Structure formats: C-alpha cells, structure tokens
Amino acid sequence: DLKAKVRNQVRKADKHALTVHFGDSEWLDAFYRVFSVNMRDLGTPVFPKRLFGAMLHHLGENAELCVVTHERQPIAGAILVHSDQTTEVPSASSLQAFRHTCVNMKMYWAMLCRAIERGASTFDFGRSSEGCGTYKFKTQWGAVAEDTGWQQISLATDAAPITKEDSRFAAAIEVWKRLPVWVTRLAGPPIVRGIP
Question: Which end of the chain is more exposed for a tag (fewer CB within 10 A), N or C?
C-alpha cells in the first residue's frame, strides 16, 4: 500500500499535462536526449546510445522504452526489461528543470502499472547506493533493498572501487557538469567503459 505522500505526488503530476508513451526504437532518440542531459547534470559519463539500441534489438518484446512528454517535449525516460514475472529498470532519467511536475512519480507509476499488465510479480527498481537520493526515492514506493555483489578485476594491487563520493573525483565531476551535452555524448562512452 502506497503512502499518502506518494499518492499525492502522483496526483500532482496529473495536473501538469504529462503524457506517458511506451514503445521501441522509435522513442530511442527522445529517451537518449533526456538520459544524456541528466547524466551530464549529475557529472557522470554517459553510456552510448547504441547500448540501449542493442538492448531493444536483442531483447525484442522483452525490452521497451518509457518516455514522458510535456507539450510534446521529452522530459523523462526509462528502459524496462521484462522477464519471468519480473520487470526491471536498469536506467531511468528525468530533466531537473521539470522536477516540480513530479514527472518521476508519473513515470514510475506508469511503469509499475505496465509491469502488472505484463504479469510481473516483482518490480526491480535497479541499483542505488544506500542512503543516496535515488535510494530514498525507490524505498518510498515500498522497494526493499537486497545486497548485490560487485566484482572488479584490476591490474593495480591497490585499486579501490570508484564512487561518486570519492573526493579524488570531485573536481572532474564539477568540470563534467559544465560541459556541453554534445561533448559528453562523445567523450562519455569511452570513459564509462573503464569505470567499474
């Protein structure tokens, strides 16, 4: 059962003329526009668009995109992967400028409904570091955390996992946030391949 705050935010989103679309590669450009802007704003190198295109192609009817528009402008998007009674969301983003519309609440409500339509009994919100903003967002929906293992192979003997909270990367993150999005789309994929 959802808490009153969550229900109120979903209702608030309904007042902003947001439209939810589900589809395939026809929504890939719209999804990636939102995704790459959001990743830049977070200071995180972006995955290449072809990764998501490959997911849609190879997973067929078991993968789809969810894009939310406001006056035909894409402002949020996610990729869903459906399997045996489980729907998972490996990547989701929204534009910070539209946060006041509660677009994330609208999108996740629609994706939960979609999972139920597909016969899922489990909805996997994806990974988050405990205590961070995305972790809190997901737990408000009733999500229960499960520990997942991380494996890292490095030639360096003193290699430690790279985290956004690591102060060694604070300056690089701030510089990344100021780059034009087109630059981050070009530079991000080669960088993200080397980040565990």
Answer: N
pLDDT score, position 127: 80
What is the predicted pLDDT for the residue at 63? Answer: 97
Output the pTM of the full model.
0.86
**Which residue stretches of the chain have pLDDT < 50?**
none
Question: How far is Cα 75 from Cα 38, in angstroms, rounded to an integer?
Answer: 10
Angle CA(127)–CA(129)–CA(135) in degrees, nearest 5?
A: 75
Burial 38-76 (b: 16+ CB within 10 A, else e): bbbbebbbbbbbeebeebbeeeeeebbbbbbbbeeebbb
Q: At what angle do helices 4-13 and 103-117 cross, to 10 degrees?
A: 100
